[in-house]
Amino acid sequence: MADNRAKRILIIDDDIKLIELLSEYLGGNQFEVSYVQDGLNAVEEIKTQTPDLIILDYMMPGKDGLEVLRDIRAHCDLPVIMLTAKGDDTDRIVGLELGADDYLPKPFNPRELLARIKAVLRRHVTPSLDNHKKKDLVIRLGDLILNKAAYTIKVNNTSIDLSTTEFKILEVLMKNPNRVLSRDQIMDMAQGKDFMAFDRSIDIHISKLRSKIETDPSVPKRIKTIWGTGYMFVEIS
User: Fold this and answer.
1) CB 3.0–4.6 Å: which of 7, 131, 150, 231 could bond 52 by disulfide?
2) How many CB atoms are located within 10 Å of the residue 124 CB?
3) CATH of residue 195
4) H or E stretch covering 168
5) What is the helix (H) or strand (E) element at residue 57, kind and residue range?
6) 107 and 18 share a domain?
7) In angstroms, rounded to a whole number, what is the distance separating the alpha carbons of residues 208 and 186?
8) Along the 237 residues of the chain, how does pLDDT read in single tens digits?
9) In whole angstroms, what separates CA 177 from the centre of its chain?
10) CA-CA distance, 141 to 158, in Å (whole number)?
11) In terms of residue numbers, what domain contains 104?
12) Which CATH number is 74's domain given?
């Protein structure tokens, strides 16, 4: 059965004017919006609010967005879009490495944020399927098991936490074992029309994936770099 309820968004930001603007705009686009103005109690708010997506500000007093993102990822895999007044690529890369699903610098057009929210939610949702169809959503390659129905990854029967984007990239790679895929092919297959949310961060996500599924990320055996071309997933036992 389709989930037709309004999606819940939790804004974690100390800028009350921005919160009011986004609450009105997103509320007018059929989202339920709640907010918290500091990161100190963010995880408790997430447990209470059970949002579908989190909008997280980078610069906040007490505990900044990166610290909050670490707390969130230690607790759950909810999609997170980070907002920042900083334009430094380093901050963007760190946010993505810590598990942010997308990144939007301030100032921004609320319509662009809305488009990114919808794109991230589309990638994160798991469709309701009959049991026989669910079997098709499990990919097993060696000791690595990807379950699309449950949205889980296991390596040697140990669950691994991945961001939404990391999950989609790994899914693409595992569906095409021993096949060299270019960065553009991976992005297109993982994102489709949501290409803008990816930008050129594919190498960052691959690096993060390796740190989670490879025994030695410095000498990867599963996700091979094919220099000048892209990446290839290799099954290992």
Assistant:
1) 7
2) 19
3) 1.10.10.10
4) helix 164-175
5) strand 53-57
6) yes
7) 15
8) 445 678 999 999 989 999 999 999 999 999 999 999 888 877 788 878 789 999 999 888 778 888 888 888 777 778 899 888 765 666 666 677 677 888 888 888 999 999 999 988 887 764 443 444 444 578 888 889 898 867 788 888 888 888 888 888 999 999 999 999 988 888 878 865 444 444 457 888 899 999 999 999 999 999 999 998 899 999 886
9) 23
10) 15
11) 7-124
12) 3.40.50.2300
CA distance 32 to 25: 11
32 in a structural domain: yes
| pTM > 0.90 | no
In whole angstroms, how large is the CA radius of gyration of the chain? Answer: 18
Residue 1 lies in a domain: no
Tokens of 26: 């997103």
| Angle, vertex CA 185, rays to CA 184 and CA 186, nearest 5 | 90
Nearest to 197 by CA among 187, 182, 209: 187
- Which segments within 71-192 are labelled E, that is strand? 80-84, 102-105, 138-141, 144-147, 152-155, 158-160, 181-182
List b or e across 126-152, with b for residues whose CB sees 16 or more CB atoms inside 10 angstroms: eeeeeeeebeebebebeebbbebbeeb
- Residue for token pair 């079997």: 135
Parallel, antiparallel, or unpaired: how do β-strands 181-182 and 230-233 relate? antiparallel
